[in-house]
Amino acid sequence: MTQLRAACIQMRSGVEVAPNIAHASQMIREAAGQGAQLIATPEMTNLLDIRPGMARPKLMAEVDDPALAALRALAEELAVWLLIGSIAVTVEGEDRFANRSILIAPDGSIRARYDKIHMFDVEVGDGQSYRESRAYRPGERAVLAETDFATLGLSICYDVRFPHLYRKLAQAGAGILTIPAAFTRVTGQAHWHVLVRARAIETGSFVIAPAQGGTHEDGRETFGHSLIISPWGEVLAEKADDMPGILLADLDLDAIAKARTRIPSLGNERDILI
Q: Domains of the chain (ranges plus CATH)?
């Protein structure tokens, strides 16, 4: 396969799981109806609630998660590859959750899981403080996922600020990088486009970056502007607002090798001593 139609689902997840999944499913169906073969949802597809203690009673283990079960069934029904950008799930023996990205194959099977490595513990400058590590256990391993069309390198949101992760993924074979996100409005306005394009350029990879957007029920404001970027850093498609919706782009997968031949930086890297 050298051509792939990819879709980003931009959401405004609320504080209840069922309506979030119903809305995501509606847009996934629409994207599949427009020919999308790979469809990606944003970070926290199942629930976005940063109020202390409010999310916990609504979350459960992956094996019992109704959102995951519904989206696996939908991927199988539509015969598409579906990346759940992330869902929050409980972890056995842990007080903290996992922020987990899950790739579902067209037969409904789970092909890869990735737990977000880098925790968003910051003061963003809009009067809001985020301490993701209080509620979420960081992952420990980078993850590659094999598909019918390319190798995917999985990541989530704040990971985008750590370029070594993406270089390692690309050097290990990833040609498409996924960056589902719930970027804050302040940091998104300042850095989102630059960071996502940079990860594509420096690795010669396609980047698929579905985002949360708008003012959420819990009061959080996210930036939106889902992006699909070429290996040369071109913006192939952008959802140029913070409204929920669908973004589509046709990917010429031969562009990965072309970009890496023109700028062979993945192979030119040298160890640096300090």
A: 3-268 (3.60.110.10)
